[in-house]
Amino acid sequence: MNSTAFISSGKYARFLFLAIILLSGIIQVHAQADADPQQLKKKIAAAADDQQKAELLITLSSYYLNKPGELKADIDEATQLNKQAGKLSTMLKYKAGIGKAMLLDAQIHREKGERDKALQLTNAALAFAKKNNLRVVTADVYKELCAYKGYERPDIEEKIKYLEQAVYLYKRGKAVKKEADALKDLADYYGLAEQNQKALSLLENAVGLYKSIGYKELQGIYTLMSGNYGVLQNAQLSLKYALLAEKTAEEVQDKSYQWCTIYNHLGLAYYDLLKFDLAFANFEKALNIALENKNIGDVNAITYNLASLYCHKKNYKAALRTLKRTEKNYPPIDEITKIRQLFIFTVSYSMLKETEKSRPYYEQLLKKYNESDIGLFYKLTGIIIYLQRSGQPEKTYAYLEKFRKFSKESKNLVFYSQIELLAFQSDQASKKYESAIKHLQQHQVYKDSIFNLEKLKQSTALQLQFETEKKDKNIRLLREQGKVQEAKIQNEKVIRYVFLGSIIVLILFAALLYNRSRLKNQANKKLELKRQQIDEQNEQLKKLLGEKEWLLKEIHHRVKNNLQIVISLLNTQSAYLENEDALMAIQNSQHRMHAMSLIHQKLYQSDNLSTIDMSWYIYELINYIKECYSSEKKISFVMDVDKIFLDVAQAVPLGLILNEAINNTVKYAFPESRKGEVEVLFKKSENNAYRLVISDNGVGLPDDFNIDETESLGMNLMRGLTDQLEGDFTLESKNGLKITINFRKNTDIDAEHADIVKE
Q1: Higher pLDDT, 743 or 671
Q2: Same domain, 628 and 741
């Protein structure tokens, strides 16, 4: 059982990453004009008429307004050009030009920081555009109104209303590019409103519109699709669209700040697939870009991402280093970011048992808790963990009650599960073991519910993709059939004109065509009936196969959970024991159960239900043992392991052998805290033969040791498990101890699988 609720589940960590969607979902990239300003000035001088000149002046003004940086000279230039455009449009009574100039004037005031004046001008532009039935300009104003709303739920709902009206008006005005842009923005806000399926549907429509006009810079929209699939826990599709965004950006030679967002999404996608090295690498790339551009908001958001990921890996020192890297030069500017940073500092120092360093951050978090409900999840979790780790579990119950009330209002299963885990830890620290077990069991129930809900969301997303592909395929098929039908009609006309001179021949030919058509229809009906029968049988087989795989995953999932509960119960029981031998026996049992639990965990998380990747397994098992003795031993591990897959029947005994051998080595090979090295080698040779070697440079076995006469449970267990593998077990005590096990791969399961395929 993890010692803190903050990183108790990968799904919780993903929840903590949702705040970054504000960075990666709402892509605030100002639309800088693609045209060269010098070329625009030449076009203005050579304009064919004043109306065209007014439009060009507005375009050039917009260029200077949205130019990267916030130079006063650019804003002044934009203001001057827009005034010229407004005066010229008024003189010409060019209503579209007047409306655009009014809107641009409002945007200029907003850029200057004159928010109230800007909003007043925006509402005036909206009234003018509606009065004069300027559909596209009205839609532009609705998009501008979104800038005056924040990211609280009511504000997001207002933005959605504005953008839905804008999409409708762009469609009526046949402004395809602007319609696609508005659909993309609308999808952003539906994603923030947790309607991710709706967001994906809008993004698919936007992609279709972009492609219809040959627009190739789709990296931004692919990034949004990656984010929505990530929230839906569809890690594969999330990574697919993140990589597609990266590829597209490279193809169009994008050199904009948008790379920061792309790398951030790649980091999130790799995190969901447990590829932490790639996640770290992409987060670092995103952070470097944000630092180069001195974007304080993005620096804080990505820094929090990195720190959260370090916390998930229990590397709290690295999390603290990450936050301190940007703390001085890029202090958080918004309240939620300040709270998240206080949260990481409080939890990290608390988990490192540095209570004095954690206390100032805890006190600031407590102060903000008393001031408002912003970021309540972070505040409550941080406060409770600090009190637990500082020996004050009794004080946590009041905050747990507040957490329960907050969770009921949000109706979020993740919150419910988090509360039960925090309550379990408080009860355990307070020695309320009966209540602790109940909370642990309830936490597991919520955790299972979250697991099943995520699977349902994933299947829904896959169904949406399937239906979209099916629709496109049907459209292509209908077009091909239409072409075939047109060709057939043309041929019939030619035949009719050729045989027009002979009525008898025409009748015979028509009869022949009728007969052949009737026979063809009959044959087609028979083929269609057979096809339907085959499709039904295939669907039944797919359903049965899917149910079988789901049941197998559920079994492994339940077995793993039951083993984890038994480990927790043994841990609780050990609190009542003072006998060192009994405590050691319980600890050994916990290690053995964890060795088996890892196997079932891997099986239910993987698509392959029959074999285990032993290189992954050995790495995870050794990491677990290192963590168990990290404060007591100074031992380094060297691993040389091939990527080998074994079935469960061989993986379980081999895992138990590894557990016994490495635990015995850590306990007895290096007495008095001396340093040492343990080498683990697992190699495959010819004819499905495998060799496992665990060696150390410790004290070795006594000179009078006789393996046949020993009463050691661990040694006898390893020999018995080796017999179960039908292998050879040898010991060599020279400059340490070397255990060698040779065995062959069990090919019975492979043979059974081959027989099933043949049938």
Answers
A1: 743
A2: yes
3-state helix, strand, coil in the chain (%, to 5): 75, 5, 20
One domain for residues 639 and 744:
yes
Residue 753 has pLDDT above 50, yes or no: no
pLDDT at 182: 93
pLDDT at 31: 38
Domain boundary among 293, 314, 338: 293
- CATH code of the domain in which 687 resides: 3.30.565.10
243, 110: one domain: no
CB 101 within 8 A of CB 120: no
Count Cβ atoms below 10 Å from residue 468 Cβ, excluding itself.
14
What are the φ and ψ backbone dihedral angles of 468, each rounded to 5 degrees? -65, -45
Domain boundary among 148, 174, 189: 148
Give 616-626 pLDDT, tens digit per residue: 888 888 888 88
Domain that includes residue 141, residue range: 33-148
- State whether 238 and 131 are in the same domain: no
* Rounded Cα gap, residues 61 and 67, in angstroms: 10
Beta strands in 302-356 (DSSP E): none
Q: Give the count of domains, the chain.
A: 3
Which phi and psi (to 5°) does residue 706 adopt?
Answer: -125, 115
CATH code assigned at 269: 1.25.40
For tokens 């998009």, what's the residue? Answer: 143
Q: Is residue 413 part of a domain?
A: no
Cβ count near 437 (within 10 Å):
17
Q: Is 737 helix (H, G, I), strand (E, B) or coil?
A: strand
745 and 637 together in one domain: yes
pLDDT of residue 579: 73
Tokens at residue 61, please? 């003004």
Phi, psi values for residue 30, rounded to 5°: -65, 140
Query: What is the overall mean pLDDT for the chain?
Result: 81
Of the ranges 26-40, 127-141, 485-499, which one carries the lowest mean pLDDT score? 26-40
Token reading at 176: 């395809």
Query: pLDDT tens, 627-662?
Result: 877 656 778 889 999 988 888 888 888 888 888 888
d(CA 121, CA 549): 61
User: Sheet holding 676-684: strands in order across?
Assistant: 635-641, 676-684, 689-696, 737-744, 728-733
CA distance linking residue 557 with residue 565, whole number of Å? 12
CATH code at position 101: 1.25.40.10
Res 203 pLDDT > 50: yes
Integer Cα distance of 120 and 299 in angstroms: 33
- 658 and 742, same domain (yes or no): yes
Residue 618 lies in a domain: yes
**Mean predicted confidence (pLDDT) in 679-700:** 89
Residues 37 and 133 in one domain: yes
Mean pLDDT over 257-285 rounds to: 89
Q: How many CB atoms lie within 10 A of CB 527?
A: 10
Residues 631 and 729 in one domain: yes
Judge whether 709 lies within some domain. yes
Asked whether residue 378 carries a pLDDT value surpassing 70, the answer given is: yes
* Cα–Cα separations (whole angstroms), residue 160 to 17, 148, 157, 224, 347: 23, 13, 5, 16, 36
Tell me how crowded residue 680 is: count the other CB atoms within 10 A of its CB. 22
Give domain status of residue 481, yes or no. no
Q: b/e string for 651-678 if b means 16 or more Cβ within 10 A?
A: bbbbbbbbbbbbbbbbeebbeeeeebeb
Residues 6+ apart with CB under 8 A from 346: 358, 361, 362, 365, 382, 383, 385, 386
**Contact between 342 and 365 (Cβ < 8 Å):** yes
Pairing, β 728-733 against β 737-744: antiparallel
